[in-house]
Amino acid sequence: MRQLSPFDCLQKLDDNVCVWLNGSPDAERPIWTRLWNSSKKRYCTDGGANRVVKRTPKLASPDVVLGDMDSIQSEVAEALRPTTRLIDAPDQDKTDLTKCLEFIAEDFKNHAAPRIVLLGGTSGRFDHVLAAINSLYNSTNQLQLEVYCLDGENLTFVLDEGEHSVKIDRQSVTGTCGVVPFCQKPTVVTMKGFRWDLENATMAFGGVISTSNYMEKDVLYVQTSAPLIFTIELQPLALV
C-alpha cells in the first residue's frame, strides 16, 4: 500500500522542489512565495519565468527555466541569464510541464526522488488545465514522481493504480474533495473514510464520478484499478 502525506508539501517546505507554471495571476496565493523561496531547487516553464521575475515581493531566481522558449519575454531571459540555466526544449509533442518534469527526474536520478510542488497549472485556460492533468498522470505513472499541484483553492494529485492510504490535515481543508476517473479504461474503485464511500464501484465519465464528496477521517483509503485525480479544497488560511 502506498502511504501519502500530501500536506507535508505545505508544511515541510525545504523538502520540496517547486515548478512555477504560466497560469492565471488570480490563482496565486501568499504561500506560493514561501514555498518557492524555501524549496531546495526551483524550476520554471518558460512562461512561468515571466511571473517569477516580475512578481512582488521579489522571488528567488529559478535554477532552471525549460521550454520551447516561445513565451519567455526577452528582458526576462536577459535578467535571468547570469544566474539561471535556460534550456531550449523544442519538442512540440510534449508540453513544457511534461518536459520539465522529465528533466527533474533526470536531474535527481542519482538521488532520492524529490517531492514536487507545481505552482499553478489548474487555473486559467481549460485546455491548459487538461494538459497539466495529463502531465500529472505521466509524472506519477511513468516517472514515479510524487507531484502535487497547488492553485488558489485546491491541492490536486494523482492516485496511481493500486492501494493508497492518504493522511489528511483536517485543519487545512474544508473537507470537500473530489475523486475522479480520467483514464479511458475501466476504473473500479473502493473508497473508505469518506461521507460517500464506494465498494468495488465502476467509475467513468458518463457514469459515477465522486465529486463534492467529503472527507470524514484523518486517514483515507482508496483502492483503484486505474489512475484517479484526487482534488482537495483548502481552507483560505492554509494558503497564507
TrEMBL record:
<dbReference type="GO" id="GO:0030975">
    <property type="term" value="F:thiamine binding"/>
</dbReference>
<dbReference type="GO" id="GO:0009229">
    <property type="term" value="P:thiamine diphosphate biosynthetic process"/>
</dbReference>
<dbReference type="GO" id="GO:0004788">
    <property type="term" value="F:thiamine diphosphokinase activity"/>
</dbReference>
<dbReference type="InterPro" id="IPR036759">
    <property type="entry name" value="TPK_catalytic_sf"/>
</dbReference>
<dbReference type="InterPro" id="IPR007371">
    <property type="entry name" value="TPK_catalytic"/>
</dbReference>
<dbReference type="GO" id="GO:0005524">
    <property type="term" value="F:ATP binding"/>
</dbReference>
<keyword id="KW-0418">Kinase</keyword>
<feature type="domain" description="Thiamin pyrophosphokinase thiamin-binding">
    <location>
        <begin position="162"/>
        <end position="228"/>
    </location>
</feature>
<dbReference type="Pfam" id="PF04263">
    <property type="entry name" value="TPK_catalytic"/>
</dbReference>
<keyword id="KW-0547">Nucleotide-binding</keyword>
<keyword id="KW-0067">ATP-binding</keyword>
<dbReference type="GO" id="GO:0016301">
    <property type="term" value="F:kinase activity"/>
</dbReference>
<protein>
    <submittedName>
        <fullName>Thiamine diphosphokinase</fullName>
    </submittedName>
</protein>
<dbReference type="GO" id="GO:0006772">
    <property type="term" value="P:thiamine metabolic process"/>
</dbReference>
<dbReference type="InterPro" id="IPR006282">
    <property type="entry name" value="Thi_PPkinase"/>
</dbReference>
<dbReference type="Pfam" id="PF04265">
    <property type="entry name" value="TPK_B1_binding"/>
</dbReference>
<dbReference type="InterPro" id="IPR007373">
    <property type="entry name" value="Thiamin_PyroPKinase_B1-bd"/>
</dbReference>
<keyword id="KW-0808">Transferase</keyword>
<dbReference type="InterPro" id="IPR036371">
    <property type="entry name" value="TPK_B1-bd_sf"/>
</dbReference>
